[in-house]
């Protein structure tokens, strides 16, 4: 029996807002009021605030003015909150933002607790640490994820998350570079590029920023771009398994990407935040590809492995072989930025990271990942049974569902309005995401099952 065959259909009721609460006021009750003489009532306008507030003489960063609307996920939160005002009694289920929901395994939290308590003792106290991360953790990251790939401990930079490192890397690259990005892809790549001044203005007719190479990734090309059609970029942001499509690049595809970077003298920023979700033979690191250390660096994170979205801990790998055009090592410039703009990841979170990479911690993380992958199976089976074209889910915690001929935001609104389930509109990840929605598998099991019941009732 399939996982979704035992999902029973339940009716969905939309809660209406209560505009007027019952009043306890009795108009017949007698109330004595002191009598005062009444004069002439004059309507006096309240003093208005000055039409223009005081302004400094500092110009706004013109690059920030190029950004369109709000960042995707705060905009989704805004629409969710507006929906709650309309339906205050609705049970909202959030399968939108990729935020983990299951508790952090105790083998990991106990290590953080131990470190925290040790800070209250003279023997266990520590202040500033190395901006690059504690050596035992850097060593454990290498031995766990990069063994036999030619990566050294000092190639690892421990951070407060991959998203933060993406922005720090943009500071390293500066404004005088051209970026290429998968389309669709994680919006932080494009937005950070805009803020740094790497782009032109937003072109509404094509829904793209000028001076960015959007590498279209659609079902017909296996969600891997046609590299022969792409003009030379300086920086290539590439995420595998991809957020939002869930597609994991094959060894052959990544070999093509590395060769493309070499032919063009480009640098690949490889985002491997979901690598532990890969269940097949697809590479988990770009450094599995020969020659990658000369053209690529890699960002990663504990967020989606150990539930560290709030704890904040990640890392970036920059091999010594990766050089700028003048021969200067990229790692040295990144080290300067890290040392200037960052004081290192929390020593408590690093203790948790070290516990993650113990044998017990790795098993616990794999168990949590297995739980989320079961959620993806439930979601995939649900949309499959409803006749939708469904992608992703196999190697990532995201399901990419196609609604041909429809606006992504319209589908998002329809699902929210009629089922009280939050998803993510595909167009928020780039123009090639139009017509898709992303459904996250991060959720408690009962919520995922209930959301799927509601999907079935809406689209049966």
From TrEMBL:
GO terms for molecular function: pyridoxal phosphate binding; transaminase activity. SUPFAM superfamilies: PLP-dependent transferases. Keywords: Aminotransferase, Pyridoxal phosphate, Transferase. Signal peptide: none annotated. GO terms for biological process: systemic acquired resistance, salicylic acid mediated signaling pathway. Its cofactor is pyridoxal 5'-phosphate. Belongs to the class-I pyridoxal-phosphate-dependent aminotransferase family. LL-diaminopimelate aminotransferase subfamily. PANTHER family: AMINOTRANSFERASE (PTHR43144). HAMAP family: DapL_aminotrans_1 (MF_01642). This is Putative LL-diaminopimelate aminotransferase. It comes from Lupinus albus.
């Amino acid at each position: 029996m399939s996982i979704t065959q035992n999902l029973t259909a339940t009716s969905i009721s939309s809660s209406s807002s209560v505009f007027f609460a019952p009043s306890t006021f009795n108009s017949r009750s007698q109330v004595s009021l002191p009598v005062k003489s009444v004069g002439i009532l004059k309507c006096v306008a309240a003093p208005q605030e000055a039409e223009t507030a005081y302004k400094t003489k500092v110009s706004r960063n013109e690059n920030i003015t190029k950004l369109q609307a709000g960042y995707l996920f705060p905009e989704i939160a805004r629409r969710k909150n507006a929906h709650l005002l309309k339906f205050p009694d609705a049970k909202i289920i959030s399968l939108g933002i990729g935020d983990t929901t299951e508790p952090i395994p105790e083998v990991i939290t106990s290590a953080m607790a131990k470190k925290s308590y040790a800070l209250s003792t003279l023997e266990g106290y520590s202040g500033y640490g190395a901006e690059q991360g504690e050596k035992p953790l850097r060593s454990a990251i290498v031995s766990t994820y990069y063994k036999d790939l030619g990566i050294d401990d000092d190639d690892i930079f421990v951070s407060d998350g991959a998203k933060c490192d993406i922005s720090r890397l943009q500071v390293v690259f500066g404004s005088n570079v051209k970026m290429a990005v998968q389309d669709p892809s994680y919006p932080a790549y494009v937005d950070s590029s805009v803020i740094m001044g790497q782009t032109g203005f937003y072109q509404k007719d094509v829904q793209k920023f000028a001076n960015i190479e959007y590498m279209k990734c659609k079902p017909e090309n296996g969600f891997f771009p046609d590299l022969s059609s792409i003009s030379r970029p300086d920086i290539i942001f590439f995420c595998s398994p991809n957020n939002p499509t869930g597609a994991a690049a094959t060894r052959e595809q990544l070999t093509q990407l590395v060769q493309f970077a070499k032919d063009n003298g480009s640098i690949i920023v490889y985002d491997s935040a979901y690598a532990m979700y890969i269940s097949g033979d697809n590479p988990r690191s770009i450094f599995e590809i020969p020659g990658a250390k000369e053209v690529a660096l890699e960002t990663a994170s504990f967020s989606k492995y150990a539930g560290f979205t709030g704890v904040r801990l990640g890392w970036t790998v920059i091999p010594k072989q990766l050089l700028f055009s003048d021969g200067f090592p990229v790692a040295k410039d990144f080290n300067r930025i890290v040392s200037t703009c960052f004081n290192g990841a929390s020593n408590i979170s690093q203790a948790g990271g070290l516990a993650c990479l113990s044998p017990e911690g790795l098993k616990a993380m794999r168990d949590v990942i297995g739980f989320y992958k079961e959620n993806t199976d439930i979601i995939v089976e649900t949309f499959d049974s409803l006749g939708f074209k469904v992608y992703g889910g196999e190697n990532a915690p995201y399901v990419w569902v196609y609604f041909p001929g429809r606006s992504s935001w319209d589908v998002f609104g329809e699902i929210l309005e009629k089922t009280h389930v939050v998803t993510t509109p595909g167009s928020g990840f780039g123009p090639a995401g139009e017509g898709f929605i992303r459904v996250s598998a991060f959720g408690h099991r009962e919520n995922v099952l209930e959301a799927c019941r509601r999907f079935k009732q809406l689209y049966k």
